[in-house]
Amino acid sequence: MCGIVGAVAQRNIVPVLVEGLRRLEYRGYDSCGVAVLGAEGPRRVRGTERVADLDAQTQEMHFEGVTGISHTRWATHGAPTIDNAHPIFSNNALAIVHNGIIENYESLRDALRAKGYQFASQTDTEVIAHLIHSLYRGDLFAAVQGAVRELHGAYAIAVIHKDQPHTVVGARAGSPLVVGYGKGENFLASDALAVAGNTDRFAYLEEGDVCEITLDGVRIADRDGHAAQRAVHAVQAYGGAVELGPYRHYMQKEIFEQPRAIGDTIPAADPFGADLFGANAREVFDGIDSLLILACGTSYYAGLTAKYWIESIAKIRTDVEIASEYRYRDSVPNPRSLVVTISQSGETADTIAALKHAQSLGMKHTLAVCNVATSAMVQLTELKFLTHAGREIGVASTKAFTTQLVALFILAVTLGKLRGHVSDAQEAEYQKLLRHLPAALNGVLALEPQIIAWADEFARKENALFLGRGLHYPIALEGALKLKEISYIHAEAYPAGELKHGPLALVTEAMPVVTVAPNDALLEKLKSNMQEVRARGGKLYVFADADSHIVSDDGIQVIRMPEHYGLLSPILHVVPLQLLAYHTACKRGTDVDKPRNLAKSVTVE
Ligand code: F6R
Predict the structure, then answer these.
(1) Phi, psi at residue 157, to the nearest 5°?
(2) Which of 249, 294, 298, 300 to mutate to test the pocket of ligand 1 (most atoms within 8 A of CB)?
(3) Contact 81, 21 (CB under 8 A)
(4) How far apart are CA 255 and CA 247, in angstroms?
(5) Where is the active site (predicted)?
(6) What are the pocket residues of ligand 1 if the criterion is a CB atom closer than 6 Å to any ligand atom?
(7) Domains along the sequence of the chain with CATH
(8) Is residue 242 over pLDDT 70?
(9) What is the pLDDT of residue 360?
(10) Which residues on adjacent β-strands are paired with residue 340?
């Protein structure tokens, strides 16, 4: 979602501030802006176009400065207009950029209005700007400390003030902020990626921290106002990871990176050792009697797939809940349940809140399956398993999903082994399947030309149904989500047995029905469901595998997967669905990597 960059240097830092925004673009935004300190106070350039336009504007205007902040905004309070774009000013004295949501902004705004402050935007951010201004007595750091004490909600901010040249003050709670230590210059950013290359030394601020960067130093205070030190980590520049290479879009690149990402996620030595999840994992795993999986979106579908694996391999009861629902409903907590959160970013506000909610209900055994080692979620859980998808830039998740599946399969087998439900022979078989996955995926990726031919037909449709059964029902859900989010075609997924309980009414010649049909125990049932569609004139697009014995005919087209992959088949079957969504979106000319209204990291509720 929103992105923050701040810098203090002895050179013109506008190119750094704008380049930082360009690197954060993938997170999703609908306006952007940059402010620097001038002799008369802060000056800014804002726009509702792309960062490239902001860059062109700043160059044309010779907009320069040595102290500044910049921002990409994903609208929450107030439409994506220039007036609501950050940086937001207070009385032409200070400028602020903000990520997050201030929940008590209305009462603060009323109080500030009563003091004579006028509001030029509809943002909650302007409340923070005026609040800091009202508390400023010649010390920006102290004013920010005072202001954040009054804020309820989530924030990461960066602030500059006309009377404090060469100073940027930042603060965070609930939204990430890092300090970059340079030589004679220092940086702030919501993600180290933004300023990587200018420095490779970063400190991750903790909840409630306030910090000040100047030319030659960094000052940090914790939430109680005490001076604090935060460990400085060497973080490699990410430049290479964001190169597009020969691909048209990051999504395409990331789909094709899956064999590598999965290979990197499978541990080199024993892939089913409990200690992969943490030093005390064995003890925790021995003490649990159920699992509660919490996640959102694509990560939730990974959780749904895991339920099939864990209940069948490890024989442990597993519930899967959408994080945004779980956090607000009355549930019956089970202290012997292992709470598993799944997240690509590790910053998803609903998943973090659901995790904290479970912890507050006395569920102390927690595990994060996450792709970002430094994320808030990973800091919050007792156990962790890091996926190694590498940075995912396309908003639509692909390689993060398949690496999550790998992690969850490893969890299922590890638990099954500990409970004596996995024999040595089965373990060896699972290990073989895992090790061969990258090669099997390459075989699936080679189907791209056939899928492009289908995409031609899908690009002309406005609706699609996706069917799967058992383990492949969550894969149908994920296929439908991919298609709708990047091609804007309305798509729904059903477990195929549900068809006749309602959705069959939608089936006509105009309705493409994508069917995930591997040769598993439910294949014959699925074939009957497919006949129900054909009998109503529906057009079936079937992903079968080598042994499914389904052939192309009138009203049915088949793409055959190179091999049948048993329990790990969902990991292979999702890939052609990703490619179908991708190529359909390309043909419809949508902004594949940055679909409308969506953001990569959903750090607000
Ligand atoms: C869809 C997609 C989203 C995310 C969801 C959770 O392609 O990417 O549905 O899966 O926003 O995000 P994470 O996994 O970062 O918690």
Answers:
(1) -135, 160
(2) 298
(3) no
(4) 10
(5) 2 (nucleophile), 600 (for fru-6p isomerization activity)
(6) 296-299, 343-345, 348, 351, 396-397, 481, 485, 602
(7) 3-234 (3.60.20.10), 250-442 (3.40.50.10490), 448-588 (3.40.50.10490)
(8) no
(9) 97
(10) 293, 367
